[in-house]
Structures are given as structure tokens and as C-alpha cells.
Amino acid sequence: MADKSEELALDRVQVKKAVQALLAFLKTKSTPDFLLLDESQHLSLLFTLWKIPKQAQTIRIPLPHGIRTDTDEVCLFTRDEPNMTPDQTQRFYKKLLAERGVKNVTEVIPYKMLKTEYKPFEAKRRLLGNFDMFLSDDRVRRLLSSHIGKHFYERKKEPLSVNLRSKKLALDIQRTIQGTTISISKKGCCCMARVAHSGMAADEIAENIDSAVSTIVTKLRVKGPLIKIIHLKSQSSVALPIYTSNMNHLTLLEETKKQARTAMDAKKTASKQKSAKKEQKSTEKNTGAEVEEEIPQLVPIVPPSKKAKLEQTKKGLEKAPNPTGGKKAPNPTGGKKAPNPTGGKKAPNPTGGKKAPNPTGGKKAPNPTGGKKAMRRKSRRTKKAA
Question: Please, are residues 246 and 32 in contact by the beta-carbon 8 Å criterion?
Fold first, then answer.
């Protein structure tokens, strides 16, 4: 990391000239009302990287000269202390900050108070406009994003985490307030960091620029050449270039790309060779040990009761042996019809075609038992059968 900072060496003479020119331009554009209000404009560094980073990153930059004035309002979000109301928690942390010698924090808001009193959209916008900077207890920092809203992030006023249990609390808060941050996104190659204001001296601005560039170069997570161009600008001015990298970096980038491509090609070829070897081994195993395996036949499962019935039906269907040996029996008539003894005529009727006379005269014979014994026998038979 030290090599990167040595490679990117700023020309301090050129930086100081750019700062003086920018301050002169701002004085010409300032109005009498602007001078009476003693308002100052922010001075920022615009970094253009050689390539888009793969990961988003937020870098904290400590500065030798503070960029905030004494009139800036700072708000601190704290956690809820157990067995305390929001008002009691607020008084507790205000007393703690006073005891530790912290004088830059103007307002303390507990987490429960933020959820209840600043829930409406208008209250959040009012809170955003009332303060210039926001700090947060590191124990509740991850819970604030769902309550403060997106406007804090759009205006780059998201809370910065602070350890309230630190023994050097006043020094840590002072460094955080007087320092700055830069957010590097993976959506583009440009990023900006506020490093000074127009009310500072030219030498102080130059020192802040030098320290900011060195910290960004050391903490930036990008391989190869890092920064392409650095500009200095204010809120209402053009961007003045203070650093331009050599064009030799283009050849370095091309070389790194070629190396990456060759490495990828080597990996692909190695993977193909491994897959080909595995296929050869598998084919050799299959050809060397070819065994014809019998395909198992599927047999339906039959219960024992059905098995017995099937066996009986199979036995009944078997053909019985033929005593004639499969030949037809000889016909005694020689295949001719037997002669009719009557000569094909009907036999004469002895009664002359009349019915025989009934000896009882068409009446039934009288039953000597009266039919009672027969009825008793029938009843006994039915009882036995039942």
C-alpha cells in the first residue's frame, strides 16, 4: 500500500496555484449579502478512476484542519438505556458528553424517540434540514436506515458511527466531525470528497488535499493503477485539474487484461484436459469389464388363496389321454343309415285315435288318511332341513 502512495505524488506547487485561483474566483463571484452572512462554499476533490470498482466502499478521511465551523449543528442518535424513558436517556447522554468534554454535539435523540416523534415524512425532512451532520451510536447504527429515509443518503448526510464507550470519546468525536468521508460505488468511476471550505487559508487547503489523496490511495480496494485524474472544484465553479496520471498506465492495463485472459484460457484448457482424461478412464473401465447382466423379469405378486385357485384351473385345463390314440372309432354300419322296419310308415294306433276311458270318472281317488300324515311328514322334513 505504501508503494501506491509513493507512485501518486502530487505537485504541491501546482496544487497551491489551483487553490489560489479558485479562491480568487470565488471572491469575484461573492455578493455583499454573502459576505455579511459570513457563509463559505465547500471545496471538494473529484476523483476519476481508471476502472470501475467491483465492490462499494466508504472511506473515512482524517484531515489536519477541520472543515466545519463552530456554527455547524451536529445531532447524535443513541440507543435506549434499560429501565429509562426517552427523556431520561436523553439527559443521561447529554451529561455523559459534558463530562467527557464533548462540545460539538448540539442535540441527542434516543432510538425510541426517533421511531415515535420523527415517524412522519415531514418530521424527517425537518430533521434533515435542521442539522449539518449526524452521528450514531455504533450499537444502533444498522437499525437507522429503515427509519431515517432515503433523503439522508441522497444528500450524503447518513449518520457516522461512533463508539460511545471509548475512553477517548472527545478525541474520536472531534476527528469524526472535523474529518470527511468518500463513498465509492460500483456503478461508476467518479467519486467526490469534501476537503475544505472557502474560509480557510490556501496552505491549509493544500495540506488537507495532500492528506486526503494519500489516505484514499492507501485504503482504496482496487488492483493495478488507481487514479486517472484529480480535479478541485467548488459548488459553483469549474473543475481545475491538479493531477493527471501518465499514459503508461494504459499499457499496464492492457498487460493486466492480457494476463487475466491467458490465465482464464489456461484454466479452461486444464479443465478440458481433466474432463477428457476422466472420459477415457470411464470408457476403458467399461470396455475392460463388459459383463452381460440378465435383465430381471417382473413377476406379479399373487396371494396364496389365488395361487391355489390358479393351480386347480391349470390342472383342469390339461387334456385327458385319448383311448383311441387320436383315431375315430369304426362305424358298424359302414357309414350307411340303418333300415327302417316300418318302411317309413307310422305304426297303427290300437285305440283308433281315441282316449282311453277314465275308471274314476274324472275324479280323484279318496285319501284314506285324510292327508294329515303327509302334512306331518312334510313339517318334520322342513324342520330337519332347517
Answer: no
Q: Give CA–CA dist 285/293, Å, rounded.
A: 16
Give the DSSP per-residue string, 236-282: TSPPEEEEE--THHHHHHHHHHHHHHHHHHHHHHHHHHHHHHHHHHH
What is the rounded CA–CA span in Å between residue 93 and residue 90?
6
At 259 the pLDDT is 76
Mean pLDDT of the chain: 77
pLDDT in tens, 91-150: 999 999 999 888 888 899 999 999 999 888 888 889 988 898 899 999 998 888 888 888
Cα–Cα dist 117/233, whole Å: 39
Provide the percentage of residues in the chain whose pLDDT is more than 70. 68
Cβ neighbours of 43 (radius 10 Å): 24
Cell of 21: 485561483
224-246 per-residue burial string, b: 16 or more CB within 10 A, e: under 16: ebbbbbbbbbbeeeebbebbebe
The region, left, alpha or beta by phi > 0 then psi within -120 to 50, assigned to residue 236 is alpha
